[in-house]
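Memo to structure team: turn this sequence into C-alpha cells by end of day. - J.P.
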Amino acid sequence: MNKRSVWTVIVVVGGLTLASLGGRPAEAGDKAGKLKFEIYKDKKSEFRWRLVGAEGAAVALSGQGYTTKQSCKDGIESVKKNGSSEKAKFEVYEDKGKQFRWKLLATNGNNIASSSAGFKTKADCEAALASLKKGLATATVEELKE
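Reply from structure team:
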C-alpha cells in the first residue's frame, strides 16, 4: 500500500474538508469515522493491534508486541480510554523525513499508539488527529485469524 492511500484514508476516516496531500478537498463517505482495531500475531508470535479506517488502511499502530491476546486487548482499551479523554496527551512531531506524525502517550509517559503515516504539514497532522480522537471511543475490535 502506498503512502498516498494511507493519507487519504485518514482524511476519509476523519471526514476532514482538506486532504492531507496537496490541500485538495476530500469527500467524507458514509463510513467516515468508523474505526476498527485489528488484533493479529506478528512474525515473533507476539500479539499486536493496528487501527484501521473505513477503507481498511492502517491509521495507527501499537508499536509494541504483547505476549498474550488479553494484554493486547487491554492495550486497545488503554488507547480508547486515553485517546478519547479530554486529558489525552498526543504529541505531534517532525520525523527524519521532514513529515509530521503523532503519538499518544499514557499517563506514565509511555508511547501507546503512533500514526502509521506522515503528513506534509503540521496542520494536516493535527486536523487528522482531531478527527481520529472522535472515533476512538466507539472503535470496534476484531481478532484476525492466524
